[in-house]
Fold:
Amino acid sequence: MSQIAQLLKYQQKDAELLAIEQEIANSDARKKFVQTKNFIKKASEKLDQLEGKSQEILSMLERLNGRLAEITEVLKEFENLDELIEGGADISFYQRNALQISENIKALRADIANLSAAAKETAEEYQALKKRVIAAQKQYPVAQAEYQEYSNTKNERKNAILAELSEIAKDLDEVVLRKYQTKRSERIFPILCPIKADRCSKCGMELSLAGKEIIASGKVIECENCHRILYLE
Structure:
């Protein structure tokens, strides 16, 4: 049997294996397992972000409260305003300062209120997400076990096909088989395709003049477009 015929036989059996792999990949058990796994990973990253955000807000609140305390200290200078005025101090100067300080305090209190609200919102989001992560972590081993159990039901058929592929591969050139397996890993399937009217029967790409000569000599070539192995029936 020629290498092409042997490789086509290998591909035909490999198609059965691929069908089982796709069945497992598209199963509800795997989808549930993958969704749970991905949620835990992404949610854990989000929790870290929220924790960092919370620390940043708390630091900003600490700075603002410190600034508010400083300004409050300045206000104490106005407790003896009557005495200062009696001593000949410029009242307009103190009035301007008092107005500016009042505006600063108002702005600081508004910023503190906004940050406090943001801190509360962040803390609530963190706690809600943490509860979901804990629930998902409990569900994860269950989903994993269900997926494994489902996969195991396909193992007998998979192992039988793998054994047949191993037997067929004994009559294949190692270089040819390695090239086939490389393309298989790149999710190219079918890998061997016949030429139809000087075109790739899979993607329709026309062969170059050099490619036509190679095919005519009984050899195989690689499609320049979809990279499948082309042969002449």
